[in-house]
Amino acid sequence: MEAAGRSARMTLRTDASVKPLELFFDLVFVLALTQCTQLMADDPSWEGLTRGLLVLGVLWWSWVGYSWLTSVVDPEEGLVRFAIFGAMAALLVVALCVPEAFGDLGLLFACAYFVVRIGQVVLLYTAGRDDPNLRRSVTGLAVGTLIGTSILIVASFTDGVLQGGLWALALALDVGEPYLFGSEGWKLAPRHFVERHGLIIIIALGESIVAIGAGVEGEVDAGVVAASALGVGVAAALWWLYFDIVALVAERRLAHAKPGREQNEIARDSFSYLHFPMVAGIVLVALGLKKTLGHVEDPLKVEVATAMLGGTAIYLLAHVAFRWRNVHRFNVARLVCAAVLLALIPLATEIASLATVALVLGLLAALIAYETVHFAELRDRLRHQVASE
What we know:
Distance between the termini: 41 Å
Number of strands: 0
Shape: globular
Structural class: mainly alpha
């Protein structure tokens, strides 16, 4: 009986490694990201970009929920494993509905999304049955989830500006819930939490590589080869800018924070919140690469040019905010680079899209070279300190 009781209460996480089942779960999120990119590619207008980002925001918050869940409980123990499988199935339905999330499949999208979210709430509530603080936080999460998903269901019966407004309201209320109900009761495994978010950045970068292949139309000529090589270079630069130092600093900061409110708020702000503009920026870059591969000699439309250059700028600005949140220092070089990228959007509508990709890569390469030289000593010391811990 005692063993059965422990099984019902689930096994709390005691290690810092990401489990294979978590990686398996993320494979469904790969499809979801691909669908978001395709949604915007099919309608590369301001309205289409807005809809794509709203869908991405909703999907991101569902993924965030499971990143917190699997930092509390062992996902491969007992009934949790089957619950994760069920969430994967529901999330797959959500991803399949993305192209028509604002159309005929809006209700199915909202209902499947409710299943994804409520599964997380039930598992967390069960895990916290002996922890009043965790249960209190989960109760707040349940309220935010019910309100957010209910608004999405209502939105499925509307259209136009009203529908978009309801989506934005649902997302804002759901994302804002952690501020309203406090952060003291949550639990997490810091190194696991950091690794989990690093892996989702890699998945988003993988989507940019997929977009390159999906964007090829017709013959693979010299222009396509050049654009593909430059696109991979851009993805590699985005990877470098995150994993060379940023991820290491974040891991140390979170691991050394006092468990409880301080650690939970750093995790919430630095990862649950500030990683979204990073992922969104990568998805927007993927859209730009996809459109470039279709017509490498033509200029990008203003919306797509904004996605390409603006998405890269959003990614860098998220890094600036990320550094400020963790060490209270501004990264001036990344701030300047982001400003230059935004200033170049009008030029990108006049020159060949291949030249725009080359311009983005050149700016990112220059930024990396500057930081590598300027912060050489600090970078070397930090990397060796992390390796020795």
